[in-house]
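Hi there,

I know you've been waiting on this one. I reran it after we fixed the sequence typo, so this is the corrected version. Both the input and the resulting structure follow.
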Amino acid sequence: MKNAIPRYNFYKTKYGSELLIDVVDLQYTRKFLTQGKVHILTYYDITFITEGEGEFTIGNRTHLAAPGDVFFSKPGEVRSWDTDRIGNGHALIFEDTFLTSFFKDPLFVQHLPFFRMGKMVDKLQLPNGLYARILQLLHDIKVEIDSFHPHDTGILRALLYEVLMLLNRAYCTSIPPETGKEPHKDISSFHLSRFFELVGEHFREQHSVQFYADKLCITPNYLNEILSSAININAKQYILNKVTDEAQRLLTYTDLPISEIASELHFSTVSYFVRSFRQCIGYTPLAYRKMEKP
């Protein structure tokens, strides 16, 4: 693919033996963004801003970042941040297996509201007291890493778990119910999580609600019901939003022709893709590219 977006993998042996957690300063990571500010991470990242103000983009959402702000990104999301105006901060980065192997729950991290597939909010503003408490925990994690022993990661896992639980509480308290509420803790919660995973895997090829309902062994009507209850949109709209987000990414960060993007996203015709995109965004793909491409 032309103009491929730089993809950064976790440096697992940075401290000798494999370690799947780290805390890095933004001043340190800035020097690795040599091919431009837009990039993709293959691991989880929680960024805490401590100095400066500037734009921070995750996917198609751009926020103003300022001290006290926290940003959450999942593996595979397109990111960028203003390396000239955001002075410094800390990035807590980790692979999900660092925790899931300990808790024996392969979906533990994915079920956190700020990392869930259907999340609507990437940014959190923390009260000063809580922000200071979490920054101290980041310092403690860094101290523990600096004295790292390969077979003694229990304290690191405990510290990471404490940070995640504090952020989970703050996120669920701060985000309005229609965008941050938890699904009911029953079978519908399983269907919801699995639907988000399936869409993430298949949305480029499969746009039909029936396909996902069949995979979940439920009816399309029931799938629409549990999705509408959780995030206030039906399954068809969620799938279309996902496809449109990917189209926006390809239009902005690649030079692929409109026809190739339509083909890659499995639209039957280019005109159908143009019509669908315009209905969602308000612009044709070509007009959107002219406005948004760096």
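Quick highlight: The chain has twelve helices and ten strands.

Best,
R. S.
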